[in-house]
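seq:
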Amino acid sequence: MGDVESPMSIWLVRMKNHIDKYAYGFASKNISKAKNETYTTAVIILVLLTASYGSFSVNSKAISPNADTVLYRINTSIIAMENQLWMQSIEFLRKKRTKLKRSKCYIIVDETYDSYTGKLLRKEKKNKKDLTKDEKSTLKYIHKYKPKKGDTGSFKYLVFALVYGNTRRVLRVKALKRKEKYKDFIVKTLIELKKEVQFECVLFDRGFYDGSFIEKLKKNEILFVLRARISKTMKKEYGFYKKWKCYEHFPIGNDGNGSLVLGVDYTSGKRMRWAFITNMKFDNWYKVREIYRKRWNIENIFKATDGIQLRVQTNNPTTRMFCVCLSFLLYNAWQSKQRRNKLTLLNFIMKLSENLLLFILKSVEKILFYRDRLKLNLLFWNRIIQSI
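struct:
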């Protein structure tokens, strides 16, 4: 006679199926099991999901378990998380290879920032000699750029995203240190992606306008469209006209050149001048601008995930990386299911949290007493309690 499955094992199977195996696998592998702890990994995941709805901190959503109980349970490293998410993406691409071949795929590479309001940068400036070893290690990840008013700095991440049809998916995330040179990392990642998916080209913003970087892309036969910084030479010697034109071998700094595409169009009724560097060929050069519009997909990803990202006050770059990756994985899960459920991202998170809590409360009697202790500030909490 076979073993009877426990209520918890049945619930775990249901949870994996409902969330998305990538998001569940990432969270469960990076949260310490700590079997002797009052709160199980499942409850910790529930609290994190709940806090993601509305982009709250753990403390503002639940008195117990609190930030210490949750964030101290994140037992991993930045490199481990980067590699884990990347391996999940490779698995996804191989699984969807046939489907992706039928779609026009684009890779978008960009940087995003996570606001920091701590005092470490000020301490470094005033009392650099007093910094501890841990503070010096943490400061390597804190950049001086301030994304929002009131910030004292930021954490910076390099993001690779895939766009196919109406679907977007984050493939890779890298936490960037100060002054880190990562252009070779981009090229290496794109070479690996070429083996897994047939993409039309890679799209870059002006921040990647660099001659040596462009030469490396061309050398490795990576098709790209990169927005160029408009220079005085472009204005005086070439000019911007309604008819889009391409100028071969345009010098980019002292160590590179590329095909320069110039033209104008009207965005929101306003005349806009555009400059691009590309190694692609077109019968009508305005198509470069049409392709580049797809780059806004990654901006939409950043905007959406910013609304569900856990807000943490910690300086710990590992905890920060965990929260950023979890928000991207929840976004991926929503993208893979949105055709069926047609929910907004926030409603998807709310529905997900509601279903997970119902599974927990119905499947594990031991957790019933958490109802009062969790004190989750959810709009649907009373409805859940009444249904069990």
